[in-house]
Records
---
Amino acid sequence: MSLTEYTELMLPAIEAELQRQVARLDQKETRLFHQMLTYHMGWTGEGAGPEVTGKRVRPLLVLLVMASCMSNWLHAVPAAIAIELIHNFSLVHDDIQDNSDKRRGRTTVWKKWNMAQAINVGDALFVISNQAILDLAGNFPGDTVIRIVRVIQDACLDLTRGQYLDMVYENREDISVQDYWKMIECKTAALISACAQVGGILGSRDDETIEQYCLFGRDLGLAFQVQDDLLGIWGDEALTGKSAASDLVDGKNSLPILFGINQRGEFAKRWSLSPVLPDEVADIAQILVHEGAQEYTERAAERLTNQALATLERINPKNDAGKALVELTKKLLNRES
Amino acid sequence: MSLTEYTELMLPAIEAELQRQVARLDQKETRLFHQMLTYHMGWTGEGAGPEVTGKRVRPLLVLLVMASCMSNWLHAVPAAIAIELIHNFSLVHDDIQDNSDKRRGRTTVWKKWNMAQAINVGDALFVISNQAILDLAGNFPGDTVIRIVRVIQDACLDLTRGQYLDMVYENREDISVQDYWKMIECKTAALISACAQVGGILGSRDDETIEQYCLFGRDLGLAFQVQDDLLGIWGDEALTGKSAASDLVDGKNSLPILFGINQRGEFAKRWSLSPVLPDEVADIAQILVHEGAQEYTERAAERLTNQALATLERINPKNDAGKALVELTKKLLNRES
């Protein structure tokens, strides 16, 4: 089976279980509340559909790692979707914190309803994640469930750490590239690493294998974020100047921008002057290219992807799911959105 | 031992464990983040001290129920403080949602720092709660820990349901007293009921006893909220007209107010006209008395307290901790803040 075939098999199971868990709120008094969650998840409301649900990379990763350990991936579904719910809880709160109007082209929850309700929607997604994970107990001993919860919650605390750092770094010009790595290690890599680790714990009894999957997930997560940062400046949407589609306009703490600031050249001078306007993004992106930010960032993404692939090779899963993991890793580096 | 002696014994254990858990964020890069949490918990910053930490009613209830089952209450501390952390997570988010500047006389987290950070502070308190509860595994089998997590997370989902209802009821004048009970059942009683249930599960093997503790907690929680509503209008602070100390000024969905609105008399007429100003609260509170809202609310608080006491009598815990529970129940009804 190829990655595409695995995805076609796993995605429906992921969506079905996500919907079943979120349906806890589908009661007479809380119908609109339920609708806020299903809207955010991409299932209902304007523009709903598979193209706006997000790629579900995190749950797919859990299930593929589980399958690569020669274990029945169906048993890992509660953990997979619990992590996806956490990711979505953080997105709902993130959109408020970043003052973002749009997510995947659709109005964000806080813009569509209001901030107070959106905080509560995020909280509910987190609670449902905590409830969903307990379904693992149907197929695994209590101690394993507790171990999984611990791994996931540790990643969640890192998420809040990363979020904190991202917010305090805002509008500061003394942030180093090292600060960046610390931030995305928490904000992005921790949860993706947890995906691979959870798949490993559920699928394998070998602590060394689990440790390697954890490492693989970390590098994959870092590579994923760095690639995101590249797309945030040189991706199609960013360059064609759709308002705020560029990290330059958003003033994000992204790797090329921090690299540029630390070069203390033309980019840094322009950056410290005033916020970047949409019709300037093409020119300023070009300055960043000249100052080496694009190359530096591309190299970082490649290096991290190669590290992830090397770790996978050491684990050496010998089935199709293992090959699909290699494919997934390469695909995430070459993605265009 | 009396309730006071139990409290003097248990509170230091509760505070110490809360501090130990929150210290997860006490690291170089996240020192200010840690400080935001310790400020909210009442341990640091302006006005910090035991008088502003809150009464820690929820963890005390867990530990007293555990003790009343003749079990070692120390083993229940992780569950007790996990629930207290959940309560505090909901307070931090609540203050943002209600646009409240003050909590226990101190500037709220979102006012002191900002809204984005405060959302993250609430999230972190919830994560730490999820981590703290796992320490139960040191003294209880995995399946018991999972059962406890389920009870607590179910209560958390109710919390978000209650919060949703509270927000959609705002500024509506068609809310019945029945709607009120549904709302506070979720918003207040669910978590207090979970406290008693958790103490029961950890302390007793008898399902009937556990069920009765759950019921006791529910009635106690409802009584607690109704008493809060009384104080919100006729308590000292509310009546002396400290700005926004009165639920009348805040426009809260409280029982006397909803009772008054549904009487469709003088109060309802005044209420629908415009927001209540601080210098009107004494007069309008008097109108509510005339229309029977105070008596109705007092009777409700008494009835619920008596139901809780009757349930306790059925459980019939035969030790000092059982007597302390009776004392606590009566004290919560007669409290003045």
Note: The longest strand of chain A covers residues 102-103.
---
Amino acid sequence: MEKGLMLVVSGPAGSGKGTVNGRLSKMDGYAFSVSATTRAPRPGEVDGVNYHFISREEFEERIARGDMLEHTSYCGNYYGTPLKEALEVLEEGKNLILEIEVEGAMNVKRLYPEAVLIMLLPPTFAVQEWRLRHRGTETEEVIQRRLARTREELELLGEYDYIVYNRPDCAEDCVEDIRAIVRAERCSLRRHPNAKKAYFEQD
Amino acid sequence: MEKGLMLVVSGPAGSGKGTVNGRLSKMDGYAFSVSATTRAPRPGEVDGVNYHFISREEFEERIARGDMLEHTSYCGNYYGTPLKEALEVLEEGKNLILEIEVEGAMNVKRLYPEAVLIMLLPPTFAVQEWRLRHRGTETEEVIQRRLARTREELELLGEYDYIVYNRPDCAEDCVEDIRAIVRAERCSLRRHPNAKKAYFEQD
């Protein structure tokens, strides 16, 4: 079976990445990466579904041996993307979606260079600003911080492979763009380094 | 309007490129490149449809000023892909399909680096051989020459961007692969070199 692709999907606040990734991960052949954490499970949370719940010692050991694709620490607990579990999903032939921030994406690229890095963006900064204000869930201070953060995030845009623009009410187009990216990447020559040899040798 | 992509589709004898390109060029937003030639039109042939019929002097002038993406000479006449006409099709927003051999493809890449180079291949050499024999239109000598030629052609495979495998009775999959490649290429970061600047400046 052909291995799945690791898809890193990043996007600033208001880019609609939650909606797009949510729809994509429900499609055949796609899975959403389950993070690992050291925090205790809350009532109803299932190990391996909501999170991989692991001990602090195990988390730190896995960081040390390069088995966390990326990680961060929040309120005294670690959160991260475990490499081993990710590779298992890829071996099942599923494309794995990692919704992570730009700094984490750089780590993933370093540890797993075959990853495909996709930046989801509103059509313009003005649209992003409008969306953040329009959903009305954040204070002006938070909105300002998120907009400022976007400028930082886009400093690393050049490290990404693709930009997918999320036009208003067009989340479905983004899903189709990402599916096309996966299909095209499977045909890309860099994923067939032994194509010539294989062509003449296979029966 | 967004400019179309120049798609170079090559493939050895028996790869099915005629079928695939024929279907693709009938789709919305695609056009098949019309070659230029110095030979006289045959009865019923229409200038600009079957060929661009031009004089030997004009053809040689166009070669000299780099206005032939690639060309060859056959039975005392020139045949080639005119750049100006190609650019006009792209400006109309259509993706232009150039069905040309590997040497011509290298020329196109040199003169128009944004071109996307796609190699169409049967799944294996054994399948290619079977197809050539099975269609029964060529002599054994011609079949042997075409198979030997395939080895030469694939020497340049590393210069291509994508491989599309044409499995038996799956021409439609190849058309979908190429459409996915076009959609993905439109999202590729190298086609959005000023994305960051544009993001913050556009209204």
Note: The domain at 6-192 of chain A is CATH 3.40.50.300 (Rossmann fold).
